[in-house]
Design goal:
The structure holds two protein chains of two kinds.
Chain A: E1 2-4, H1 26-41, E2 45-50, E3 54-56, E4 62-65, E5 68-71, E6 77-86, E7 92-98, E8 103-108, E9 112-121, E10 128-131, E11 134-138, E12 146-155, E13 160-162, H2 188-197, E14 205-217, E15 222-224, E16 243-262, E17 267-288, E18 304-309, E19 315-324
Antiparallel strand pairs in A: 1-13, 2-12, 3-12, 4-11, 5-10, 6-9, 6-12, 7-8, 7-11, 14-19, 15-18, 16-17, 16-18, 16-19
Chain B: H1 18-34, E1 38-43, E2 52-54, E3 61-63, E4 70-78, E5 89-99, E6 103-111, E7 137-142, E8 161-167, E9 173-189, E10 195-206
Parallel strand pairs in B: 2-3
Antiparallel strand pairs in B: 1-10, 2-10, 4-9, 5-7, 5-10, 6-9, 8-9
The chains are: A mainly beta, B mainly beta.
Chain lengths: 326, 208
Amino acid sequence: MSARVPHRPTNVSLSQVKSGLVPLGADTWQPLVDNTNYLHGRGGQLICAYDPVYLLSTTGSAFTFRHKVSRRHNASHLLWTITLQTHEDGNCLATLTSSLGGTVDFSMGQTGIHTARLVEAVPSRQTGAQDLDMTIELDTSSSVLARVRGISCVEIPRYELAVDETEYGVNPNSLRASTTVLDDTAKSVGGALTAVQNAGAHRGAFLHWSVPIAVSTSDASYIAFFDGAPALLQRKLFDGDTVRSVTCYVYGSGTGDVRFTMDNGDSAVVSFSGVGSNTWLSETLDVDVEDPSQDDGNSGDDNITIEWGNQGTIISVLAIAIIANS
Amino acid sequence: MTRINGSGRYVADRPLSVNTARNGIANTLHLIDQYCQHRITWSVTDTDDVLFFSPGGGSNVTEVTVDEPFLMYSQELIWTIRHDGTPAVPVIRVRARASGAVLDVAVSLMPANVPRTLSVTPGQNVWLAAEGSVDNTEGSVVGGFRDPNTAGDRALVDRSLLKFPTEDGDGNTAQAAVLLVRLDIWGQLDASESSAGLTGIWLREFSG
C-alpha cells in the first residue's frame, strides 16, 4: 500500500476546528493528510546553484566539481541542472557523470547558454552529510570548448510514499467519513498525527562552490575568499528561534585557516595543518533565522564573510559547502 | 507558530482534543512554508574570474552589441509552493561590475517552458548602475515572478509543472511533477568600448 503525494499543498482552514461546536470532519482530516504526504514526499535543494565560471580547457579530460550535501531520507531521485556556455558555433559534446553513477551526454551546436538535465536514482536512501560530485568531460570530437556556468542539484519530489513509520505516508482513504477512528501509526487519526509529529522542514543547502583545480594562498593574514559576501538565513521553526546551526565544510589540503564570520558575530575556523591529500574538514556556525516581520525575511545579519590564509603557508582549496546539520 | 508535542498525542482511551487538531494543522501548514530553500548562492572568488561581456570581444570575453540586451546568466530551478497554493516569494541580490559605462541588469523569473523574453517591468528587475572599473555594485529585489499571460507578481500556471521519472514506495517507476522555473539575468551596455560582468547572485525563497 502506498500514499499518493499531491502536486501542491491544500489549504486547511483552522476555523473548521472549533471547540464545542462540531466534530472534526473527514473534510478536515483528509486535506491534513494530503499535506503531511506532500511534506514527507518533498525533496530539498542539495547543491545551491553556483557559477564556477570555469572553462573546460581541453577535450578528453575529466573535470570534477566536489560537493558536500545534506540529504533527506525519503528522496529517491535527484535532478541535476548543469548550465554550459559556448562562445562560438560548432559541435560540442559533453558527458556529465554524477558520483552516484548517473550519466548523460549533452550536445551543443550554437553559441549560447545551454541547460543540461540529469535525473538519477539514489541507490541507497540515507540522511546526513555525504559527498556528491559532478564530473564533466568534453568529447574529443568537439570542435569548440564550453564553460561551466551553473551547477545545481535537487531531490525530486516523490510520487508516492510507503504507508509505514519509515516514510510516514498516510492513506487518505483511512480518514473517509464513517470510517473507524484508529490510534494507528500509519493510518486514520493516529497515522495523521504521527505524520505531523515526524514532519520537518528541510533546508539542507546554504552555499556551494567548487572548481576542479585548487586555488591557493600563502598569505600570513586573513584575506577575502569571495569577492562579495554571500548571504544565508536559516528557517524559523519555533517562536523564539533566533539562530540555528549549520556546518561549514572546506575541501582542501596544506596548512592554513578558512574563517567563516556571520554578521551576527558568530564565527568558525576550519584549520588545515599539514594535510597532504585533499580532504573535507568542517566546523559549525550559528546563522540567524528568517524574520517573518520583514518583507524579505532578512534579519539584517544575513551576510557571511569567508576569509582564508592566516598561517603564512600554502593552503589549497577545491570546494566550500555550508549545509544543514540535520 | 506552534509545534505539536507528545503530550497532545491522541490515545485510544482519551478523546482527541481540539488543540491537538489545531496544532497539527497549523504545524503542517507552517512546515510547508518553512520548506523554502536557498536556490542560488554564488560569488566569484576573484574579480579576475569574472566572465566579461564587451562589444569588443576578446579572450575570455563574450562579444555583445551596444544598446541591445544580452543574456548574462541563466539557471533552471525547482520552486516551492506555499500552503495557500502560491509560489514562495523570491528574494534576489545581484552583484555586477562594469568598466567605463553604465550597465543595466534586468532579472526575469518565470516558468521554465515559457519562451525567453526580456523582462523590463519596473519593480520586477534589479537595476544596477555600475560605473568605473573597480567598484562592485549590488542591487536587490523582493518578489517578481513573471508570467507573460497573467498579471500579478505571484502568478504561475499549471504548465510550469514538469514531470520527471521517479520511484514510488514499492520501488515502481512513476512520475513526479515539480514546478520548474528559470532565472534569466540580462545586461545592456549603453556605450561602446566598455565591458561588464556578473560577480555574484543570491536567490532564495521566502515564505512571506
